[in-house]
Request: fold
Amino acid sequence: MATYTCFAMTPFVPALPPRMLTGYDMFEIPPNSLRALNRWVLRRASIQAITFPSAHVASSAAAGLVIFRLEPHVGLIFLWAALSIAVATVVGGYHYAADVLFALLVAVFVFVGTFWFW
Reply:
């Protein structure tokens, strides 16, 4: 549900990823072979747009919340992974901070709404 919510909003908030903006140099990551491979894939396989809010962040956070509710110790690991994804999308220039924050809100609302409904 969290992922589909993000995809449904995308046509209404068209945007380019921060890394594609002229003069973008925040969080410059040192060049290495993995980064070069990532850039190569992005140039050839990416749609060169972003979802608002971030579907990756929303889906990982929602999954982490569900697992946390069912098995708290394991859920903490998944929530840590979701937080890492959230930070990495901003640092890597894949999303704006607003995309990530709104995605976290979507995940929480979907999580609360789902358990309230059931």
Notes: Residues 2-17+47-117 form one domain.
